[in-house]
Write a structure and sequence with these properties.
The structure holds two protein chains of two kinds.
Chain A (H helix, E strand, L loop, with lengths): L1 E5 L8 H14 L4 E5 L5 H5 L9 H7 L4 H4 L1 E2 L5 E4 L8 H6 L7 H6 L8 E5 L6 H9 L2 E6 L3 H15 L7 E9 L4 H13 L8 E2 L2 H4 L1 H4 L3 H4 L4 H16 L13
Parallel strand pairs in A: 1-5, 1-6, 2-4, 2-5, 6-7, 7-8
Antiparallel strand pairs in A: 3-4
Chain B lengths: L1 E9 L7 H5 L4 E2 L4 E11 L4 H4 L3 E6 L4 E6 L5 E7 L25 H10 L5 E16 L5 E14 L3 E2 L3 E7 L3 H12 L4 E3 L4 H8 L21 H25 L3 H21 L7 H27 L1 H6 L6 H26 L2 H19 L7 H21 L7 H20 L6 H41 L4 H32 L2 H10 L5
Antiparallel strand pairs in B: 1-10, 1-11, 2-7, 3-4, 3-7, 4-5, 5-6, 7-8, 8-9, 8-10
Helix pairs in contact in B: 6-7, 6-11, 6-12, 7-8, 7-13, 8-10, 8-11, 10-15, 12-13, 13-14, 14-15, 14-16
The chains are: A alpha/beta, B alpha+beta.
């Protein structure tokens, strides 16, 4: 089981859109996928039409009083399940802090699911917090959406530096440019130049597109509701590049092969 | 991820329209998705999968096909994607039936199936076309809470038939309570009844077949008071059913067990005619014994070669000095011999002589069944003949000493077979536990005698094969040496069986064993 997190300390950069589309495409390719919406705003949960509620809230989950397994909901898409968000997730930092190994509790919670899923996608809230640190320790791959600005690139460097300081295992970081505004020269210039100069930035970029914004109206990933749209094609390219660059093994055999 | 929660059948002229069945009590997403599946259920001729609580199904849809093995409660055990017949890809395994375990692709499915089916081939036992219409039951957010599937199935094999449509409610993870409520509501809907049979069983029932309807064992119900002639004719009729049931499979060479079962039924027939044929009308036994001897002899060469080829792998694995490759020409020789023996066999099974035997034998048995009742009663006959056969085994076996020639053991083996067949054909007259114990004790002695004789016969045949191969110039020296090594192994095994004989016989002739046969044959005294 691989854990992929869409991560950025900034909000509104396309983390949730990336998580739901990557999760959907992986499931379509035959991976058994769990998407965990860790953001109390519950955008991913809303997109999948699931009620944003976990019995006992985040506290019971972190304390192990309620199994992650019990809270999982099937989405309307084959192979794709959702761990919904809950408004109590806003206090996750507090609950994590009371755990013995407070920075690695999330990885421990996911461990029992490794036979059931091939890929876990974590949709993270924008912040620098104990939860963020848990995500960084749990993930095998950090998929970082970046708005093509100088300051955004600076935050990527900060993240890389922070992760480099970890003892033992470290997630692989793959950034990509997101929400590119074609009318802004700086956006185009950075998005064009940087991927060739830095090997931690993907060649695929996701422009700002109304089809992506309309996901909240359709309440479905754009890759499912409009699979032939330009937006869906870009997410497909991003998923293919992520899979290749992060060495994700091919989708497993059908049920009996497992 | 979805699993099936409840299944219903539509009865009478109930509508197959799902939203209409739910009667507006649940919301459904617009439009149902429909797809067609071609379904083939597979089993061995003697229903080994069914008897082991397993169901194997090939499901072929548009461009996809999957071989699925499920357990008694429908749980998935293993699955294998196969090439779709409409669009085959070179790299994919193409299902071709019949198929033995060796012909299945390597993987979990084959690992599960191989020990259950053994040397038998998988054959289609039923085929149907399913038109599946799926409707999503949704909540106020238009989120799916359950998937309802209407399966309208038309049976195409073994007979064309229709089965009532089935409606299944699939639960989605995290929405079990909602789907259970929906299933409860459907259970009360008019025209729906809970499905008690699996689709496979419904299909077979509609086509007039019952799973497990073939067994190579003697399966007749006799009573103590039944006229013996009628009982014997019933047994012989049942044995000829087995001969006829296996004839086509033996001719087509689907797997080796068709011929084996046919041959055993013939051997049993000959034994019945010899041991209790006296109760049949005069002349019947003497007329048919040579015919069944002909039929039995017809099967011998092919079966002997089958035994060699079935044991070839373990034989080759036991080689110490020689290698598999060196033995290979012997394998090729066996296969050539088998091909020639099979030509003879199929000629015989397709011959006018066989057809004549079949029709006249059936007619003769029917006449016995309708003839006026004659003495003795079946119970008396069974007790007397079992006691006689048992006495013969005890006296012949007791006379064997370490110095007795092999022929004495061969003769004893024949006597044991006669006793065994008598116990089996009259089994329905006896207490099942006593009967089982008696057969088990006899079987242990038979195994020892069989091991002794089979190894001797195989050594003699090995010498004959070596001579043939030398004459054909198809045997390199290394192959003959490897065959010599096999002959030595067979001799060692034969000697081991010979050493074990006295112990096995003493056990069979123990006071406990004698008392058991005494209880079974009390009516004869």
């Amino acid at each position: 089981m691989k854990i992929l997190a869409t991560f950025n300390i900034k909000g509104g950069v396309g983390k949730t859109a990336t998580a739901v589309n990557i999760g959907y495409l992986a499931a379509r390719d035959g991976y058994r996928v769990l998407l965990w919406d860790l953001d109390p705003q519950a955008a991913a949960t809303y997109l999948f039409r699931v009620r944003p509620r976990v019995k006992g809230g985040g506290k019971a989950l972190i304390a192990g009083k309620r199994l992650v397994d019990d809270a999982i909901k099937a989405t309307d898409f084959e192979n794709l399940d959702l761990m919904p968000a809950d408004f109590t997730y806003r206090h996750l930092d507090l609950h994590l802090d009371s755990e013995r190994d407070s920075t690695r509790a999330l990885r421990g919670l996911l461990a029992p699911l490794r036979r059931e899923y091939d890929l876990v996608v974590l949709d993270c809230p924008p912040s620098i917090s104990l939860l963020s640190e848990n995500v960084l320790h749990a993930a095998d791959v950090l998929l970082v959406p970046l708005i093509p600005t100088t300051l955004s690139v600076r935050t990527l460097d900060q993240l890389t530096e922070f992760v480099a300081g970890f003892d033992g295992r470290r997630p692989q970081i793959l950034a990509f440019f997101s929400m590119i505004d074609r009318r802004k020269r700086l956006h185009l210039q950075i998005a064009q130049e940087l991927p060739s100069r830095r090997d931690d930035i993907a060649a695929t970029a996701i422009p700002a597109m109304s089809a992506i914004e309309r996901m909240s109206v359709q309440r479905a990933p754009v890759t499912a509701s409009a699979p032939r749209s330009a937006a869906a094609r870009r997410y497909r390219e991003l998923w293919d590049e992520t899979r290749a660059r992060c060495g994700l093994s091919p989708p497993p055999a059908p049920p009996g092969g497992r | 991820m979805q699993n099936s929660l409840r299944e219903f059948m539509l009865v009478g002229d109930a509508t197959a329209d799902i939203p209409q069945i739910a009667d507006g009590r649940f919301g459904f997403a617009d439009g149902g998705k429909t797809r067609t599946l071609r379904r083939t259920w597979l089993d061995t001729f003697d229903w080994r999968l069914f008897l082991a609580g397993l169901t194997l199904e090939l499901r072929a849809g548009r461009g996809t096909a999957e071989l699925i093995l499920t357990g008694r409660d429908g749980e998935l055990i293993a699955a294998e994607r196969t090439g779709a017949q409409s669009a085959p890809r070179a790299s994919e395994w193409q299902p071709r039936w019949p198929c033995t375990a060796d012909g299945l692709p390597l993987g979990p499915l084959r690992e599960h199936l191989a020990p259950v089916i053994g040397v038998r081939a998988l054959l289609p036992v039923a085929r149907a076309t399913s038109v599946l219409t799926q409707h999503r039951a949704v909540n106020a957010d238009d989120k799916t809470i359950a998937v309802l599937t209407m399966d309208q199935m038309a049976v195409t094999y073994p007979e064309r038939a229709t089965v009532p449509p089935r409606l299944s409610v699939g639960a989605l993870r995290g929405y079990q309570a909602q789907s259970a409520r929906l299933a409860d509501a459907l259970a009360l809907a008019p025209g729906l009844t809970t499905a008690l049979r699996a689709p496979f069983e419904s299909v077979l029932a509609a086509a007039g077949r019952k799973p497990g309807d073939y067994t190579g064992k003697i399966d007749v119900q006799l009573t103590q008071a039944m006229p013996a002639a009628l009982a014997v004719a019933t047994v012989l009729g049942g044995l000829f059913d087995t001969v006829e049931a296996n004839r086509a499979g033996a001719i087509r060479d689907i797997d080796t067990e068709f011929l084996h079962d046919l041959r055993v039924a013939v051997r049993r027939t000959r034994s019945v005619l010899k041991t209790v044929g006296e109760v049949l009308p005069a002349g019947l036994t003497s007329h048919y014994r040579p015919e069944f001897k002909w039929l039995g002899d017809l099967t011998t060469p092919t079966r002997d070669l089958d035994v060699y080829l079935l044991g070839y792998r373990s034989m080759a694995a036991r080689l110490v000095a020689a290698t598999d490759d060196e033995l290979r020409p012997f394998h090729d020789h066996l296969q050539r011999q088998r091909a020639s023996a099979r030509r003879e066999l199929t000629r015989g099974l397709r011959s006018a002589r066989f057809a004549r035997l079949a029709s006249q034998w059936r007619e003769a048995l029917a006449q016995v069944a309708t003839a006026p009742a004659r003495r003795p009663a079946t119970g008396k006959l069974a007790a007397r003949q079992i006691a006689r056969a048992h006495k013969r085994v005890i006296s012949d076996g007791g006379a064997i000493t370490p110095g007795s020639p092999p022929e004495c053991l061969h003769e004893l083996r024949k006597r044991c077979k006669e006793l065994r067949y008598l116990l089996e054909i009259f089994a329905s007259l006896h207490d099942p536990a006593e009967q089982w114990q008696a057969v088990n004790e006899l079987k242990s002695l038979q195994d020892c005698l069989g091991e002794f004789q089979d190894n001797e016969v195989q050594q003699a045949e090995l010498r004959r094969f070596a001579a043939q191969m030398m004459a054909d110039r198809s045997a390199p020296a290394a192959t003959l040496l490897a065959m010599g090594e096999i002959a030595a192994t067979l001799a060692v095994r034969q000697q081991r069986a010979r050493n074990e004989f006295s112990g096995r016989f003493a056990e069979f002739a123990s006071p406990r064993g004698l008392a058991r046969i005494g209880a079974l044959t009390a009516a004869a005294r």
